[in-house]
Amino acid sequence: MTTTVADVNKAFHGKKMAIQLPYPEDWVVKDMQILEKNDTAATVKVLLAMELIREGKLIRDTCYLEGPIEREQQVGSVEVPTLEKTKYVLPVRNRLGFAAETEALDHLKQAFASLLQEHDYLIEEHPDADVYGTLGQRGFFAMLAVRCDSSAHEKAQHLIELRKKYKHLNDYGLVVPAFQEPLDLPLSQQEAWVQAHVDSLSSHRVGIYGVDNSDPNRIYPFTVYPQVRGLLRYFVTASRQWMDVRAQFILSRGDRDGW
């Protein structure tokens, strides 16, 4: 019997969960596995590994869902992973701006390399990447860009070509500053660029990751998550915090005269 996205959503609603899969209802669900689940008395939060069929093609994706749930009795919560690093903690800068683009690039490089090392990657040199780490037989190719502009587009296309070359045996990511207004690119333009490229990059499993301007230990995902479990858990937690960080930035930027 074929199970569709509509069938899964109906099952969620039948269990009194106000969540649904973010795919067209006629897509076929080949497989769905729970990677992480966190319940409270009133909400359900779940991270799913999805395999779907679209026009005869297999699509693999990770999907985070969160919403209210009706319960007959309270259920205790499960511990949620945090963003706290323990082994490769970098110093906080306490400012958003950069003296030069080279400083911004160094900030991005140190931050992403540190995150990979925190999750047991070995950092190595690779001619095809600005930052490259290996975890056993699996690699992570990362390219750096100080702004979401034409240069970022070129690096994103490079990552797509790497994905075609090295396939699903590796992860791929474009690393940018979380807030690029100190580098003369308004947040609205930055987010418009991400939205314009999200479908193409996500279909090739290329992530966009924003390094916090002041705290290099915090990196936020703007598209897909990597497939390695430790990094996946980190970015799921980071994605929950991004909207709060973004809101704080918007509220505070009117109080800053410059960076």
Strand content: 25-35%
Shape: globular
**Based on the structure given, which CATH architecture of the largest domain is correct?**
3-Layer(aba) Sandwich
How much helix is in the residues? 25-40%
Instruction: Report mean pLDDT, rounded to a whole number.
Output: 87
CATH topology of the largest domain: Rossmann fold
Q: What kind of assembly state do the chains in view correspond to? A: single chain
Amino- and carboxy-terminal Cα gap: 59 Å
Q: Return the structural class.
A: alpha+beta
In the CATH hierarchy, what is the superfamily of the largest domain?
A: af2093 domain
Give the biggest sheet: 6 strands, mixed
Summed up, the domain count is 2
CATH top level of the largest domain is Alpha Beta
Order of helices and strands: HEEEHEEEHEHEEH
Strand order of the largest sheet: 4-5-6-7-8-9
Number of strands: 9
Number of helices: 5
Q: What is the gyration radius calculated from CA atoms?
A: 19 Å
- Low-confidence spans: pLDDT under 50, at least 5 residues? 73-81, 255-259
Secondary structure layout:
Elements (H helix, E strand, L loop, with lengths): L4 H10 L13 E12 L3 E12 L2 E12 L32 H18 L3 E3 L6 E5 L2 E7 L5 H17 L3 E8 L9 H17 L2 E6 L7 E3 L7 H24 L7
Parallel strand pairs: 6-7, 7-8
Antiparallel strand pairs: 1-2, 2-3, 4-5, 5-6, 8-9
